[in-house]
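Quick review question:
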């Protein structure tokens, strides 16, 4: 059985002490493909640097809503640098999507700053379309605006709702738009009341699994530093809900991740 963790952050400082040893242990555990996710200009560069060391690791590059600068001029400068970086590195075949990008209103209450988030989201969709890449979306407490932007700015290669909020309307509309739904640790939480219903909503050919390491450790490791070896618990949860074997869910999600990211 092989597993594909579609979203993790080995560019995070929480892995500084044991990164290389841990990555080898992850591969040995059966997680034989992994997406190392950027969320800012610098973290995207570092994510690619790490991914280049492993032929089974890929990366996504983008500026998340929580990492955009507070001034429009600074945002425009960073987006220009991001495009230059992607243009330079695209022939490595390691950058497989623009992400993580999107909207996060949980942390940002100022409407002017939210406007900058929307602007960054739209411009990075345009960047994805220019380079014919999918996108990886982070959305939190911004469902309607996220969906409106996606309907008004069609993404040629579609993409993934990463660590998808367990929101019925979001999932329903995302599927209509052709997006994949990636499930993470929260679907295993005992207080996640509608996880089963949301998993049932998503057809098998649109499901991905991820850890979002080092965050959101699934049960039974909730509260501890997460790593990609725990992706099996998300797969087990989906297998139980879908009444399929773990091996079957591993195979399906592996194939789905390869397909959306063109691997």
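Suggested answer, residue by residue:
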């Amino acid at each position: 059985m092989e597993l594909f963790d579609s979203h993790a952050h080995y560019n995070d400082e929480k892995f500084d002490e044991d990164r290389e040893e841990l990555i080898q242990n992850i591969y040995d555990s059966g997680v034989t493909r992994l997406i190392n996710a950027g969320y800012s200009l610098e973290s995207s560069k570092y994510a690619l640097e790490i991914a280049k060391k492993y032929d089974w690791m890929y990366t996504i590059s983008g500026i998340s809503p929580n990492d955009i600068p507070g001034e429009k001029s600074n945002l425009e400068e960073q987006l220009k640098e991001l495009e230059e970086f992607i243009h330079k590195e695209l022939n490595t075949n390691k950058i497989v999507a623009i992400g993580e990008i999107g909207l996060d209103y949980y942390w940002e209450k100022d409407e002017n700053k939210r406007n900058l988030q929307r602007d960054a989201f739209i411009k990075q969709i345009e960047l994805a379309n220019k380079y014919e890449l999918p996108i990886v979306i982070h959305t939190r407490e911004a469902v309607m605006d996220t969906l409106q932007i996606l309907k008004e700015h069609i993404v040629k290669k579609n993409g993934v709702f990463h660590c998808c909020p367990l929101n019925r309307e979001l999932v329903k509309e995302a599927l209509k738009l052709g997006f994949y739904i990636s499930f993470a640790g929260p679907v295993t939480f005992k207080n996640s009341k509608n996880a089963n219903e949301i998993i049932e909503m998503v057809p098998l050919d649109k499901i991905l699994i991820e850890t979002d390491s080092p965050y959101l450790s699934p049960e039974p490791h909730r509260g501890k530093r997460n790593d990609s070896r725990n992706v099996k618990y998300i797969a087990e949860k989906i297998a139980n809900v879908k009444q399929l074997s773990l091996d079957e869910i591993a195979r399906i999600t592996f194939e789905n991740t390869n397909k959306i990211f063109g691997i």
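Why it works: The longest helix spans residues 111-130. The beta strands are 3-8, 31-37, 57-61, 95-104, 135-140, 159-161, 180-183, 207-209.
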